[in-house]
């Protein structure tokens, strides 16, 4: 199969993720959408790796996975503590960081 | 000998310092100290005078260099004095009349709790005035010039609790400052033209430069003289200056300070001689003022203001004479000296009258006082005869010479100036006779009934006219002597002329009509003026309330509307200007600054709204930014 | 190595400031006495500088030089010429009087417990300002100068914003505090904007010249080894001049001064106008003319016009003021116009006059403003309309006030006359028209001074003023020496002119200008 199709898929997944981040209010869903965007990037990296015939993209994909895992840990912890203090997981309720 | 010159000034200056800085301890003796130091100054003057008489006419001038005052690269101002015949004349007049007036003030100011300070100011005035006439350069003269202005300011406003006195003092200083501006511009012009402003070098070098520059300098000097000597158009302060105590009016605003302008013109004779256009302006100013003052003097009911008008007019004569050049300088100074005697005497007489009349100044509340104050009456009467130019008395000699010199100017100008001077003499006779008649003759209008009938309140205190104490009458008697004999003494054998000639130079004028005819005309107009006054004020009773009078009379009462003009144009105009400037400074200059600050604040307020705290909106800006970068990169590639 | 006298004159007040601030809260009087002592000791050091300084010696004397920031060639370089010595002496002289006059200005108020008035801080800040001003007069390194030029804003900001009284008894505390903080912020922002532009110019100068040292750059410019493009020089000149014109202040950058002087206490107002503002005019003479002679000549016509506008405009606005302190502030704007006029007339008389003017204006404004402050403290109002007839109840106060007013209107015999006349002559000999317009300033000066005196001191006594006390001993100790100095320098200014003259000659040769010759000589 033409590897370019994987790129199209990655772009689609990224757009879905981005839209989700922008329009959803539930922190968990926003978080999952961020994961979706990260994985779309991973897919694109692997596809580029295949396209260019070297391993750079695959290596970076591994890095991304590690960072994403760390992020999941910190992010979920924040969301859980947020939920505990506010009894809500809506991101709009956490809008105090403004001038 | 020359070391004495500084002492002339130092004595009264010391008096001023001690009296003004010393505390209450000096209250009881201060006036004596002040008088003594003034007398000391006069004594030094006499010593120098006798020494000067012993020398040849050409070698009489003395110089004293005290110290270098402002030494700056290319600019040299020294504290140095010059005593020649002209200065000597002034020194004797100032310290002599000054001492007499100190003595007079001992009695006049006896009941004033601030007498010590009054004498301090008088001493300050003497020091400044002596500095003015002794300076050997224009800048030091300027110090004395403003110094007398300060003393005059302090003394006019001596009774500061009266708002009118404080206003009059301020007005005098301000009008004088306009004149001073002229003097400082003149000095600057001299500096740029000659590189110096010492009398000697400047007056010798007048031939080296063009007439235009000299005319400019001369006109600026004239402006200064107009301010100090109350000449049109800067004359308006003199009438108000009468708010000061009467000895002050006698010394400063009649005998000495106001004649400083004449001194300045005569001293700068070399400049004026080389600038005929400026000289013409000087004579015009003098002629206009002599009529102006005389007309104002006719209408005033306040005895001091009537005398002030007369002073203005007499100085007009002097300025006129000074403007005539070498044919007039000597006579200007001669009239100045005789005027110093009789006008000081007249003012002291007026003060003596006021002293006995509860400080009343309105001549319509006087009348018939000759019985009550015989000494004042006689001395005032002699001064009166002198000023109107009664043959044989001082004023006759000096004024007659000026009128002659005016005719001798030649051409149409000579005729006009001479006629104006003659007309002035007639008006002088008129208004002085009026003062004399209203004060010492006629009904006793100061009686309670008469006063109440003329509109005084029920609480009117009837005065008890009485002769003044000896300390006041003796100076008046001495001045009366001067008024009677000085003119004759000066004129016999042209003594005064020969005395001053080495300094001012003299040319004999040739009037188009004979000297005898001029004298005859002078006497004729004198008789005319006296007769007119007698018809109006002697033959019939003086109305206790001033009649409305003709348009001219009403205008003259208001100083020929000059004050109204000043008020409308300068005072009101100035107020509007400053008020609008204050508004503009606030709204425009400061407004621009505050506006900038406000718009920066407003802009940041707008920008702040972007920070709404919602994660989504931050995410949008991130995506938008990323999209923009991508788009920009692609665009760059494409191009 | 000799004793670093110049550093000591600045270090002493700086250390004194720290020590004063550290005095425990309860011991206010100890703090005041300490501050006074330190300022007097600084005056002693300044006298030592005066004695050690030889007017006919080299241009900069008592120099000190140490490397500071090597990477940028910034050096700790001090040195004074005659002009610097004169102003240093003026500063050291005025500070003790300012401290003495402000003795009770920072006492805690009895009536309102809400306002905390830290006495120690007040006096410490004054000493801090003194140290920085002295250093700016001494610095011969452009960057070093810039640092102190800017740093002195901080203590000044606190002095203006933190201390002051109500404008009149009917004003409430809140409005007064709001106006005070407005004035302080305005002062700070104005001067910071000026300083920022100057910083850009300082950096620009470094990139062009490769050095911050005034002496090095000036020498390089003089012998032609440092060539600046005309436009570069002009831009750099404008950057420096703008900052100094804000500080001086020159019309139309003046509006911070009336606010700052009006809202602060009288001693602080004197500190602003008599001491801090002098840094601006001093720097014009030292930096603008020396570093950018060609650009200075290029800008002269415009600056002269602005200076003349300042003279007339300041005087006219002074006439229209209703607040005593604001009146003095506008009068100062007029006087700064004269100083700038003298500097840029580019004649010996003008520049000597301008330097003398800085000193004399410092003394005369101090005399007038401090007496005005004593008056205001007696009535609790700055409004002229609240006064009248003071001469009857407090003749000494009125008398000293009159002398201060007369000094302000440049009466001959008092010091300001000499400087004003020198400036006028110096200007007139090159620019007659401008000289004549400036001469109108002397009439206007008489107007605002005497109107102020008449309205406050003469006339019938206002009932509120019937029982005010005359000057006290402490207040006399402030006023009498200042007046004595005004008289002395008016009669015998020779020591001062001899100090200043050689420095002016150097400046004149910097800009390569010669005095115009008198017509009579020129025509021969």
Architecture blueprint of SSEs:
The complex is a heterotrimer of chains A (99), B (639) and C (524).
Chain A: H1 4-23, H2 27-52, H3 56-86
Helix pairs in contact in A: 1-2, 2-3
Chain B: H1 3-21, H2 30-53, E1 62-72, E2 75-83, H3 85-108, H4 115-134, H5 138-156, H6 163-194, H7 199-204, H8 211-228, H9 237-240, H10 246-255, H11 260-267, H12 269-273, H13 276-299, H14 303-323, H15 329-356, H16 374-388, H17 394-408, H18 411-440, H19 448-453, H20 470-491, H21 495-504, H22 515-538, H23 551-557, H24 562-609, H25 615-638
Antiparallel strand pairs in B: 1-2
Helix pairs in contact in B: 1-2, 1-4, 2-3, 2-4, 3-4, 3-10, 3-15, 3-20, 4-5, 5-6, 5-10, 6-8, 8-11, 8-13, 10-15, 11-14, 13-14, 13-18, 13-23, 14-15, 14-17, 14-18, 15-16, 15-17, 15-20, 15-21, 16-18, 16-20, 17-18, 17-20, 18-22
Chain C: H1 5-22, H2 28-52, E1 61-69, E2 74-80, H3 82-101, H4 119-138, H5 142-151, H6 153-162, H7 173-209, H8 214-222, H9 230-247, H10 256-263, H11 266-291, H12 293-319, H13 324-344, H14 348-379, H15 390-393, H16 395-408, H17 415-430, H18 432-457, H19 473-491, H20 494-510, H21 519-523
Helix pairs in contact in C: 1-2, 1-4, 2-3, 2-4, 3-4, 3-11, 3-14, 3-19, 3-20, 4-5, 4-6, 4-11, 5-7, 6-7, 7-9, 7-10, 9-11, 9-12, 10-11, 10-13, 11-12, 11-13, 11-14, 12-13, 12-18, 13-14, 13-17, 13-18, 14-16, 14-17, 14-19, 14-20, 16-18, 16-19, 17-18, 17-19
Which blocks of ≥5 consecutive residues of chain B have pLDDT under 50? none
Overall number of structural domains of chain C: 1
Largest β-sheet summary of chain B: 2 strands, antiparallel
Average of the residue pLDDT scores of chain C:
88
Largest pleated sheet of chain C: 2 strands, antiparallel
| Share of helix of chain B, binned | over 70%
Radius of gyration from the alpha-carbon trace of chain C, in angstroms: 22 Å
Number of helices of chain B: 25
What is the alpha-carbon Rg of chain B in Å?
Answer: 31 Å
The H/E string of chain B reads HHEEHHHHHHHHHHHHHHHHHHHHHHH
- Based on Cα principal axes, name the global outline of chain B: globular
Cα(first) to Cα(last) distance of chain B is 101 Å
Share of β-strand residues of chain C: under 5%
Please state the structural category of chain C. mainly alpha
């Amino acid at each position: 199969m033409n590897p370019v199709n994987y790129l199209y898929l990655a772009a689609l997944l990224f757009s879905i993720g981005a839209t989700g981040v922008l329009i959803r209010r539930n922190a968990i869903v926003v978080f999952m959408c961020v994961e979706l965007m990260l994985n779309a990037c991973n897919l694109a990296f692997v596809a580029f790796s295949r396209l260019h015939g070297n391993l750079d993209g695959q290596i970076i994909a591994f890095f991304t996975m590690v960072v994403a895992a760390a992020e999941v840990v910190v992010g979920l912890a924040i969301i859980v503590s947020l939920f505990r203090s506010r009894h809500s997981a809506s991101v709009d309720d956490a809008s105090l960081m403004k001038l | 000998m020359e070391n004495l010159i500084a002492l002339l000034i130092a004595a009264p200056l010391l008096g001023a310092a001690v009296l003004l800085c010393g505390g209450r301890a000096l209250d009881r003796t201060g006036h004596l100290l002040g008088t003594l130091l003034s007398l000391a100054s006069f004594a030094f003057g006499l010593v120098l005078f006798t020494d000067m008489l012993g020398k040849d006419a050409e070698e009489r001038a003395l110089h004293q260099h005290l110290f270098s005052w402002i030494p700056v690269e290319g600019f040299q101002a020294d504290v140095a004095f010059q005593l020649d015949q002209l200065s000597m004349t002034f020194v004797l007049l100032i310290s002599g009349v000054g001492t007499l007036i100190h003595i007079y003030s001992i009695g006049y100011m006896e009941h004033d709790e601030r007498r010590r300070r009054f004498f301090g100011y008088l001493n300050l005035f003497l020091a400044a005035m002596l500095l003015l006439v002794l300076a050997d350069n224009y800048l030091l003269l300027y110090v004395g010039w403003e110094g007398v202005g300060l003393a005059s300011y302090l003394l006019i406003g001596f009774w500061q609790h009266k708002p009118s006195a404080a206003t009059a003092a301020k007005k005098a200083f301000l009008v004088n400052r306009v004149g001073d501006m002229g003097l400082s511009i003149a000095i600057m012009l001299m500096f740029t033209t000659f590189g110096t402003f010492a009398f000697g070098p400047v007056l010798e070098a007048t031939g080296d430069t063009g007439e235009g520059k000299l005319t400019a300098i001369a006109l600026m000097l004239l402006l200064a003289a107009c301010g100090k000597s109350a000449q049109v158009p800067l004359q308006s302060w003199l009438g108000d200056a009468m708010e000061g105590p009467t000895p002050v009016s006698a010394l400063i605003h009649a005998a000495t300070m106001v004649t400083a302008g004449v001194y300045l013109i005569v001293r700068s004779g070399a400049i004026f001689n080389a600038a005929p256009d400026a000289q013409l302006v000087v004579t015009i100013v003098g002629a206009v003022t002599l009529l102006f003052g005389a007309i104002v003097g006719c209408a005033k009911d306040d005895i001091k203001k009537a005398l002030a008008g007369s002073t203005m007019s007499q100085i007009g004569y002097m300025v006129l004479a000074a403007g005539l050049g070498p044919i007039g300088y000597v006579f200007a100074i001669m009239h100045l000296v005789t005027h110093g005697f009789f006008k000081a005497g007249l003012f002291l007489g007026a003060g003596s009258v006021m002293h006995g009349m509860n400080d009343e100044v309105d001549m319509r509340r006087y009348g018939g006082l000759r019985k009550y104050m015989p000494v004042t009456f006689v001395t005032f009467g002699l001064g009166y005869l002198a000023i109107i130019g009664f043959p044989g008395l001082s004023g006759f000699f000096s004024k007659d010479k000026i009128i002659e010199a005016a005719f001798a100017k030649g051409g149409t100008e000579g005729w006009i100036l001479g006629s104006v001077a003659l007309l002035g003499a007639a008006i002088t006779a008129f208004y002085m006779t009026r003062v004399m008649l209203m004060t010492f003759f006629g009904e006793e209008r100061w009686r309670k009934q008469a006063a109440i009938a003329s509109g005084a309140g029920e609480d009117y205190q009837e005065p008890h006219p009485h002769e003044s104490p000896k300390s006041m009458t003796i100076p008046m008697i001495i001045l009366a002597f001067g008024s009677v004999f000085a003119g004759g003494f000066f004129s016999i054998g042209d003594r005064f002329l020969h005395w001053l000639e080495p300094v001012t130079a003299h040319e004999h004028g040739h009037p188009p009509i004979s000297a005898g005819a001029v004298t005859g005309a002078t006497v004729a107009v004198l008789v005319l003026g006296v007769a007119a006054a007698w018809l109006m004020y002697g033959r019939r009773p003086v109305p206790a309330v001033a009649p409305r009078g003709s348009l001219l009379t009403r205008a003259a009462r208001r100083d020929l509307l000059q004050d109204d003009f000043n008020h409308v144009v300068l005072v009101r105009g100035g107020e509007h200007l400053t008020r609008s400037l204050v508004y503009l400074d606030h709204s425009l200059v400061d407004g621009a600054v505050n506006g900038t600050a406000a718009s920066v604040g407003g802009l940041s307020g707008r920008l702040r709204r972007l920070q709404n705290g919602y994660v989504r909106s931050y995410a949008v800006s991130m995506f938008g930014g990323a999209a923009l970068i991508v788009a920009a990169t692609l665009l760059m590639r494409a191009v | 190595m000799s004793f670093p006298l110049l550093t000591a004159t600045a270090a002493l007040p700086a250390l004194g400031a720290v020590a004063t601030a550290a005095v425990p809260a309860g011991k206010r009087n100890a703090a005041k006495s300490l501050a006074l002592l330190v300022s007097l000791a600084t005056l002693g050091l300044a006298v030592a500088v005066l004695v050690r300084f030889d007017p006919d010696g080299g241009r900069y004397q008592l120099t000190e030089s140490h490397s500071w920031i090597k990477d940028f060639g910034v050096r700790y370089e001090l040195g004074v010429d005659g002009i610097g010595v004169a102003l240093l002496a003026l500063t050291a002289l005025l500070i003790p009087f300012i401290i003495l006059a402000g003795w009770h200005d920072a006492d805690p108020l009895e009536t309102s417990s809400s306002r905390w008035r830290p006495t120690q801080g007040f006096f410490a800040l004054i000493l801090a300002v003194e140290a920085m001003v002295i250093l700016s007069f001494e610095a011969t390194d452009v960057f070093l100068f810039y640092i102190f030029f800017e740093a002195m804003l901080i203590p000044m900001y606190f002095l203006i914003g933190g201390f002051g009284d109500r404008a009149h008894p009917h004003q409430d505390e809140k409005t007064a505090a709001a106006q005070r903080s407005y004035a302080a912020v305005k002062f700070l922002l104005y001067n910071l904007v000026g300083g920022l532009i100057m910083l850009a110019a300082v950096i620009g100068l470094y990139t062009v010249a490769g050095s911050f040292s005034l002496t090095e750059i000036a020498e390089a410019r003089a012998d032609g080894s440092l060539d600046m493009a005309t436009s570069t020089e002009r831009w750099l000149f404008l950057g420096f001049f703008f900052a100094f014109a804000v500080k001086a202040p020159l019309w139309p950058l003046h509006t911070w001064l009336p606010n700052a002087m009006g809202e602060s206490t009288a001693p602080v107002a004197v500190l602003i106008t008599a001491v801090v503002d002098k840094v601006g005019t001093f720097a014009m003479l030292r930096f603008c003319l020396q570093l950018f002679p060609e650009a200075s000549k290029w800008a002269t016509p415009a600056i002269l016009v602005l200076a003349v506008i300042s003279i007339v405009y300041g005087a006219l606005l002074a006439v229209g003021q209703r607040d005593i302190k604001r009146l003095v502030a506008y009068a100062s704007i007029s006087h700064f116009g004269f100083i700038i006029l003298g500097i840029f007339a580019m004649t010996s008389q003008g520049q000597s006059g301008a330097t003398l003017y800085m000193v004399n204006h410092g003394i005369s404004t101090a005399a007038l403003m401090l007496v005005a402050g004593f008056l205001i403290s007696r009535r609790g109002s700055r409004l002229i309309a609240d006064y009248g007839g003071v001469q009857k109840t407090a003749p000494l106060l009125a008398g000293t006030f009159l002398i201060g007013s007369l000094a302000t209107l440049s009466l001959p015999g008092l010091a300001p006359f000499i400087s004003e006349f020198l400036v006028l002559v110096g200007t007139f000999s090159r620019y007659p028209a401008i000289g004549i317009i400036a001469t109108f300033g002397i009439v206007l000066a008489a107007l605002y001074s005497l109107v102020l005196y008449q309205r406050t001191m003469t006339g019938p006594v206002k009932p509120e003023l019937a029982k005010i006390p005359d000057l006290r001993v402490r207040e006399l100790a402030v006023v009498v020496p200042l007046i004595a100095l005004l008289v002395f320098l008016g009669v015998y200014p020779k020591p001062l002119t001899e100090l200043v003259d050689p420095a002016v000659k150097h400046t004149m040769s910097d800009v390569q200008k010669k005095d115009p010759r008198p017509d009579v000589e020129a025509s021969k």
